[in-house]
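Complex 162.
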Amino acid sequence: MAYSGRNRKINFNEPIPQMIERLTREHRSFESKLEEVEHSVNINNDSGYAAQIIRNMSESVIHHAVEEEARLMRVIMQKAKQESAESIKIMQEHNWVMNFLKNRLTGIEKTVKFDSETQPQQQHDEEQTKKELIEFVTNLREHFLEEEQIVFPLVLKANLLQ
Ligand SMILES: [Fe+2]
Ligand SMILES: [Fe+2]
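Predicted structure with fe (ii) ion bound:
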């Protein structure tokens, strides 16, 4: 996948059932951050703070996604290939997550710096920014749900096969 670089290692010795439990716990922790993002945008009207929260969770989200691709997809492709189509599609959603975190977020961070005087163009940008932040929250929540309903159960089932 598009990701390369950072140093955090993938632990290939962690047993799959434990890993699934941990990834699920990480989803809950990411979701509480997403709630803060939503609150900052909708209630406090503070897209700058919302972007900062996302920036702070960015590395963990990327590592989480890389682990899913490296370990879960391997189990699925080795032991449940015939049932893999939907899971592959869900894993491909990591592409927009990565794209948002690596490209769009930087754009948003630039936009929110210039919020002093409100010209029509900036007002438009501000609305666009809010929309993108809320879209990120909605899409990521949906992604977690799909993983927990489709990918994780398939991995657990496949992991039991010889
Ligand atoms: Fe994922
Ligand atoms: Fe996940």
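Residues 16-160 form one domain.
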